[in-house]
Amino acid sequence: MGQRAEAGAHVVLASHAAKHMNLTSDFLSVVSDVLVDCKALVVILSISTTCSSTAKRQW
Q: Per-residue pLDDT tens for 4-37?
């Protein structure tokens, strides 16, 4: 009896962990998308500041 209840608890824990992992992967994909967007913004900003500073030097 005890072993069967324990096995049932393991199944419940496993399904809960699977749901949690699914949520975590969704969260991680969102975070990685945001990080990629931020990196793109940083690259654009650094390029624009570099261009403006070189333009100032030429003047």
A: 777 777 777 777 777 777 778 888 888 899 999 8
